[in-house]
């Protein structure tokens, strides 16, 4: 009799995709189990509603945010690289973030069109594809967070010591290269996980490295805690120097005042969009894997919040270039110069001839 009841309970199980994969298995599933008749109705309805909401949000992102992100990120990179002479230190950091945003734009449709995020999925991907997407996502997140952090610190240096060239465009380009290298090295743990999936003779050693909670703790500390403390410290220094009126405040070598508003807005937007994702990593690190949660009623809610937080992180790939386009007053002039050059093609443009004549005279 108990065996029959157990089979009957299993027939009421409702499974939809989750945000986290299980080791050596296909992507994990949201399991809302029916322990009794009352709990079954609640869990089934909850899973159904949350799955539908997540599917709608994913499709809205793909239809609206994804094309905007690709267009504005490409536009930001092309316009600035075509006007290298007029690029400033903040422009280099925003180009770096735009490139990282393009990597996120590459990852987003693959994940959002999978069974993880939508019921009307276009494909299923295996562990190898998932780990590759995870590495690209982690590298992009680290590049975005540290570019924002170093932009804050370099802005303070430029405000305090405008003629030392410590935060010059040349130095900033090298710093951005180090950011990408450091991000790749930090994601090395995910690469080890990928390699271990293909090693059969060393499974005991590999199982010791497959500690998801430890990997999340590393990402939480390096990817969020350190940048948050550094940005807070930089803003304290910036506020202190803004209160002090010095003769250098009239120096023409200083950055445009609008850069301060752009910096403040970019830092706030980045941390607002990325904080939920890193908080879910913190919860996962403290509470352990979601599969260990005894109360099945809270499991779909946990996974729903985890997926929505990742969707917000993807949203930074279009929010940042859009904000840069609206708040940087020099961007329109650079874009117009680029369009004029494309219009003239191989011919010499009139505005270029006049500029050359002014330089000669």
Automatic annotation (TrEMBL):
The keyword Transmembrane applies. PROSITE patterns: G_PROTEIN_RECEP_F1_2. It is found in: Cell membrane. InterPro entries: GPCR_Rhodpsn, GPCR_Rhodpsn_7TM, GPER1-like, GPR146. CDD domains: 7tmA_GPR146. The keyword Ribonucleoprotein does not apply. Residues 72-324 form the G-protein coupled receptors family 1 profile domain. It is a multi-pass membrane protein. The chain crosses the membrane at residues 59-81, 93-110, 130-153, 174-195, 217-241, 262-283, 303-324. Gene3D superfamilies: Rhodopsin 7-helix transmembrane proteins (1.20.1070.10). Keywords: Cell membrane, G-protein coupled receptor, Membrane, Receptor, Transducer, Transmembrane, Transmembrane helix. PANTHER family: G-PROTEIN COUPLED RECEPTOR 146-RELATED, G-PROTEIN COUPLED RECEPTOR 182 AND ESTROGEN RECEPTOR 1. This is G-protein coupled receptors family 1 profile domain-containing protein.
